[in-house]
Design goal:
The complex is a heterodimer of chains A (251) and B (295).
Chain A (H helix, E strand, L loop, with lengths): L2 E12 L2 E12 L2 E6 L6 H7 L10 E9 L2 E2 L7 H7 E4 L10 H11 L5 H14 L3 H4 L12 H13 L5 E5 L7 H14 L4 E5 L3 H7 L2 E6 L2 E7 H6 L4 H7 L5
Parallel strand pairs in A: 3-8, 3-9, 6-7, 7-8
Antiparallel strand pairs in A: 1-2, 1-4, 4-5, 9-10
Helix pairs in contact in A: 3-4, 3-6, 4-6, 6-7
Chain B lengths: L2 H34 L5 H5 L12 H32 L4 H14 L3 H15 L6 H25 L3 H9 L4 H30 L2 H4 L32 H11 L5 H35 L3
Helix pairs in contact in B: 1-11, 3-6, 3-8, 4-6, 5-6, 6-8, 7-8, 8-11, 10-11
Classes of the chains: A alpha/beta (251), B mainly alpha (295).
Family (chain B): Belongs to the binding-protein-dependent transport system permease family. CysTW subfamily.
Protein name (chain B): Phosphate transport system permease protein PstA
InterPro entries (chain B): MetI-like, MetI-like_sf, Phosphate_PstA
Amino acid sequence: MATILTSRDVHVYYGNHEALKGISLDFEEKGITALIGPSGSSKSTYLRTLNRMNDMIPGVTVTGNIAFQGNDIYAPQTDLVALRKQIGMVFQQPNPFPFSVYDNVAFGLRIAGQKNREALDAVVENALRQAAVWDEVKDHLHDSALALSGGQQQRVCIARVLAVSPKIILLDEPTSALDPISSSQIESTLLQLRKDYTIITVTHNLQQASRIADRTAFFMNGEVVEVDDTKKIFMNPAKKETEDYISGRFG
Amino acid sequence: MNPKLSNKIANGALYGIAGFIVLILAALLGYIIITGLPMLNWHFLTTPARAFTAGGGIGIQLFNSFYLLLLTLLISFPIALGAGIYLNEYAPNNWVTNVVRTAIEILSSLPSVVVGLFGFLIFVVQFDFGFSILSGAFALTFFNLPLLTRSIEESLAAISNTQREGGLALGLSKWETVTRIILPAALPSILTGVILSAGRIFGEAAALIFTAGQSAPALDFTDWNPFNISSPLNPMRPAETLAVHIWKINSEGIMPDAKAVSSGASAVLVISVLVFNILARFIGKRLYQKLTSAK
């Protein structure tokens, strides 16, 4: 397995507040990594440094090195638009655009200049199938995506990301706004996708991490306490803090 | 006094105030429409006004009002859109932005008669546009710009940040996110704001008296060359609008049927503004439903 994404000594400051205190994590190609930890442990902040979404927030400083396929993504010559096509993101709140299901999924390709109707049709169908929502929306492709249920919306959002063929998919608590049935559908979608994509997901749901993740990183107070195979983290953690958190003694 | 009783009294008082407001509006509208309605017929709506004899219409004034409205929107909408996008999407939160916002607020509270006099000095005299539709349209742009900018800014601000994040995370540039996602999403509410502002422009008189003028020269409705002086499309001709016409008849009208003409013109004006308001609600709602398929 090749390493696709590396981070070395990543610090993030909001003004004077140090939110991330030197994170070094590597991600291998394919498979799911879960980032867990109590609220305020800055796992979402870390996730958002990986596709530079933190750039949007005024007063943020990022130091250290993050490299995608060997290239420093914070280098001045980085093409942010190209980077985010490679590293897609799905958010906590399903955020389909107020267009049809089809237009949502075709959006990224159309922006990139793809006009061929047949090519678009094929990509849209494929992406929706990969996101395991095709059967539910295939008769409503030209209806507004906002008419779908929350779980369907979230899977359409996943399909929207898949349509631009990213290498890495970042998910920021993708199921925390959904009901249990929708959540489990998203989980099975992710389990399908782990064969082909590198998936990094932040979750507050420990069971979810243990069900779907190959590796798990435990964050606390802006630091990575422990990172290992998910089984090891849940069955036999090396650190006391991890064990306390896993067993529900705090957090 | 026990809480139950005081609650009842408060309820009653609030209902009373609300009812009073509705009553004022209903009485005003009722009076204007009932007195004006008998005047309304095709002849009245299409023939030119007469200065000294009875039987004149408001055809030219009505056309002038719509043409002026169109020109004003053509000038002010692009500027307001740009300003609204800048303020909501790009402007950093610093003192420059605050100065711009304060300036807009002050501009929006200027009395329209002052805007009119200012427009007279700048456009009519200084730029030598004369009393013309163009002078009027520029003056109304000053009048309309702050309100329209504010309404567009609010429409954009109502779009959830998750939409912006979604666009950026998909590899769109900021400009693409604004033009391809945020603007379409905000369209129903922007449109509602534009139509409501159209109602205000349509009814404005004070700012136009000194800019678009108080005379309505005869128009040749078969001549659509905007460079001919008698063409309805000529933006350099003086153009009394409906609202100005009403003001003028009531202050110095000498036609024998001045009162009737004034009532009829008022009814047309009020009905037009009402139609704008209803249209704004209807179109905004329909567009929103179409966009979101919300029921």
